[in-house]
Amino acid sequence: MNAFVLGLRLLWGSGRRARVRFLLMALGSALGVSCLAAALTIPTIIAANDARVTSRAVFPGANKNAVYQEFLDPYGSRPLRRVFIGHRGVGPLPVPPGIKSLPRAGEALVSPKLDEILAANPRAAGLVPGHVIGTIAPEGLGGPDELYAYIGTDADELSEAAPLGHFGSTYTQHQVIDPSTLDILRFTLGCIVLLPLVIFLSVCAQLSGESRARRLAALRLVGLSARDTLRVNAGENVVAAFFGAVVGLIGYLGINEVMARIGLPGLRWYPADGRPDGTTIAACLLGCPVLAWVVGQFSARRAAQSPISVRRTGERKPPKKYGTLMLIPGLGIISGYCLLSAMGRDPSGGSAGAVLVPGAVLLTGAGLVFGLAPITAWLSRRLAGMSRSLPLALAMRRTEVDPGSALRVVTGLVLLVFGASLTQGVLIELDQVSRRTAPVQEYSLPVAELSMRQRAEMTALSGVQAHGMTAQTWLASLEGNPSRIQAVFATCAQLAAFTKAAHGCIDNRVLRIANPTFLADEDARPGRRFPFLLSNGQKLNVSVPQDTVTIQAYDPSEFAGPSLLIPPSLLPQGTEPKDARFVLVSPSDPTTVRAVLDGIGAVAPTASVEPVGIVIDSLAQLTVIRSLLVVGMVLGLVIGVAAFVVSVADRAMERRGQVTALALLGARAGTLRVVQVVQVLLPLAVGLGAAIVTGWLAESSYLITGGGAVHWDWDGLPLLFASALGVMLAAAVASLPMVRRHIDPEHIRRD
């Protein structure tokens, strides 16, 4: 304890530089702990959302006093859930959390966000029939932006009603993110946030490492034991880390209050959901000081064991090469999967890939971290031996002597690029499982729910490429087994927009549709006549012709299955087939799909929209995952940049004596700046190059084992290269101000 207190007294009495160093260590720890709390709280926010949704889940039972029916519809690109309650008696009824009693017929209770929509858009009133008598409290909602309603109605109006049993379940219902996807998200966030965070906190714990090592060596030489010397160093590290952890937690609490009100695309939460729990607080307040203590023990060991070599700046041992051995199994596994895919074999499926690929990714990332120092030292030695340039030789010799400082400077940015590659693979894989693989997306709506003006506005929406209608023939009687066929009302251009290919189409003529991938409709025999009931009560009689149009339809599609192509010009002016469906088509990328759905919701908020081939919950889930991964990338970027800035500034401070010596020997300012820039750019170029190659291989192995259609992300490589070049340019510019050609003899006198 005395040694620990001695460390604090030496810190406070060592002058302004020591206090500034302590403040920088504390601020760095505060930033790191804020990022750590944000990363650890993401699962807590999701769990709180799932818990409230589960507590209000409704289940059937033996209750004779009420029946219910649930509806899930898209309102734009967001899911809208409605629970209709029909009362049959006056007995007691279960009540879900968030409301005091179930609404009676003609009454409704809605979420605050849905209430805002109803107030701002009178056309959306049809979504909630009845009078809104109140809003649902937060206890009954997943989040502030959820669209949810309890609607009282006549029990006889519910076609598929079930007896109301109880609310709440012991099993999680309507999860924000699927459990298997959540595991992938946790692993990805760990790679792009937690690993760089450990590096950053280690950097903060080693600020002014050379100066502190010399000070500790002096204490050791005047008689302090090796154990007490380590305790003196731990006193400064632990106190700075703990003080920074407290400040970081307080800062995160303030950020959470702001972000909870702003929200993320697809995800908003209540401030209480984002407040750290006991485990997170313990991890921040204890984990950061413990890490600082461990780093301090290793960084001060040389000063405690060999103080004379530290005071006399003795020759340092070259970095150990054991770290590079981690790259061998890591790269071996991910390269093996990539090679199998390139040979035409499919190694996806099975449990082996689910274990081997994540393990290989972690080994490769660790190999990048621990293998960067020996690789940089070897490369520096070779370049210094071949170079005839004084600045390059000086930079390479310095990097060869102290490659560990290069490790602290660039590791955060290297891991960020490596994690960015992995994140791209996760997003591609989720895109494949959450949406159609076809290049187009269809939207089907009942024509009866749309006016002519609404249909015209929908066809003009940004992203909509074409429109058409599908309808079935009219049946006068359902007795026996009557024949009926389905038809498409579209022009040849509209048909081409909905299908892969269309051959033999002739405008303004009725054609029989032939689709080689579907069985031929035996009822659609040439010469047979079928009536289509129109909206004005009349009938449109159409004969099946001999002429055909051959199409290749997407699957699924509203245009896969109809037997006739009828030109819209045959319809009388102002009429359309009764019970027809109005179909729109757009590109299938998620951004366009969400924009079109939002546009449809604005034009016709009460219409029932069916996004063909996708589930609206999956689209909402993909939005949440994208938002969380973007948050992770932002946190990783903040951590990487902070580690770089802190390390470069610390190196400049530590090497002022060397810069002074070179300046006294006649080195020019330009020479010193080139040396500084090259010292930063060499390990950065080596690390970023390795991160791009290994990250792309790791991403490809993940996509290959995922079993999706995309195995090689060629489109992502230019972005990674551009990002790496941007990072190197920014690093070079940021390194220039760190060299000051100011001759201070005090630095030489100390040596």
Please give a structural write-up.
- The protein contains 22 helices and 18 strands.
- The protein starts with a helix and ends with a helix.
- With 751 residues, the chain is of the alpha+beta class.
- The mean pLDDT is 75.
- α4 (179-205) crosses α8 (278-299), α11 crosses α20 (669-706) and α12 crosses α13 (390-401).
Short description:
This protein is an alpha+beta fold. It contains 22 helices and 18 strands. Strands 11-15-12-16-10-9-17-8-18 form a 9-stranded mixed β-sheet, sandwiched between helices.
What is the number of E strands? 18
| Structural Rg | 34 Å
Q: Counting H and I runs of at least 4 residues, what is the number of helices?
A: 22
Sum up the overall morphology in one term.
elongated
Structural class: alpha+beta
Largest sheet: 9 strands, mixed
First-residue to last-residue Cα separation? 32 Å
Order of adjacent strands in the largest pleated sheet: 11-15-12-16-10-9-17-8-18
Strand content: 5-15%
Q: Flag low-confidence runs.
A: none
Mean pLDDT level: 75
Q: What percentage of residues falls in helices of 4 or more residues?
A: 40-55%
Topology:
Blueprint: H1 2-13, H2 16-55, E1 58-60, E2 66-75, E3 78-87, E4 107-110, H3 112-120, E5 131-135, E6 147-153, E7 162-167, H4 179-205, H5 209-221, H6 226-262, H7 271-274, H8 278-299, H9 301-305, H10 307-311, H11 327-342, H12 352-386, H13 390-401, H14 403-434, E8 440-446, H15 452-459, E9 466-472, E10 486-489, H16 492-498, E11 499-503, E12 511-514, E13 529-533, E14 539-543, E15 548-553, E16 564-566, E17 581-587, H17 590-603, E18 610-611, H18 616-654, H19 656-664, H20 669-706, H21 716-735, H22 745-750
Parallel strand pairs: 3-6, 4-5, 10-16, 12-15
Antiparallel strand pairs: 1-7, 2-3, 2-7, 4-6, 8-17, 8-18, 9-10, 9-17, 11-15, 12-16, 13-14
Helix pairs in contact: 1-6, 2-4, 2-6, 2-8, 2-18, 4-8, 4-14, 4-18, 5-6, 6-8, 11-12, 11-20, 12-13, 12-14, 12-20, 13-14, 13-20, 14-18, 14-20, 14-21, 20-21
